[in-house]
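User: Mind token order:
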Amino acid sequence: MNPTITLPRNNSNASSFGPVPSSSRRKDGRVRMPRFFRRLFKFPQMDFEMAVWEMTSLIIAPKKVFRQVYYHKQTRNTWHRADPSFTYLLSFFLLLTALSWGLAYADGFSKTLRITLVFIFGHFLLTSLLVSTTAYFLVGKLLGPGVKGLPGRNKRAGLFGPPGNDTVEQLEFGYCFDVSIRAFFPVWVWLYVVQFLLMPVISRDYWVSLFFGNLLYLVAFGYYFVVTFLGYNALPFLHHTQLLLTPVVAFGVFWIVSLFGLNLPKHFAPVLWAGADLRKSV
């Protein structure tokens, strides 16, 4: 599937989904609403084909997904995509998987509804907002000017420049949110879909079940941090982004330790955080 990229309209205004540039103000001085929010319910303008292509590429070749950021910067003067199609599509997929987990492990409609709300608004949206907010305030400050003592330190440049100064690159909250929701997609594939299909096998009290069950978590979170690294590595004004891969090493050590008796699917399956009982169908 080949995505199509349309040229921006002449009356489009850039928004950083964070600091508001002077070009995003109305003539009466009021601030315009960021395009992301203005397009929340304009479904005909959403590029779902691009969203599907990104989801496929995130599993096969995640580096391709973030090659588009230069196009958006050159044409719309913003790094992030003001298109909620990816968020809507992944939320719909989470709805389907939540219903599947609920039918298999929940008792009644109320618990299935609870699982659905927890999956979409808790696991996906709330977690993505928390991660993107943390990255917005920490990643830029640590990796924007450069880490003190490491090569590439630029003492004159910072993350946040003076208001209306377009010469200083800024880390946009919208882009941080883009990275977070795209990094969540591989987690959904491995822990919400593959784990659900393999749950009757990997939750058994056998070492082989423990090995492959825990391996799913290693692959899922490994993908999460790799996609996060690729997202921020695509921005030319960030330095030493390889530091974002450090959690992969830490989780690899935790995975090795877990092989001595900690079955992750039995204790950390997504449905457990919504109050379901795995013993119902296992």
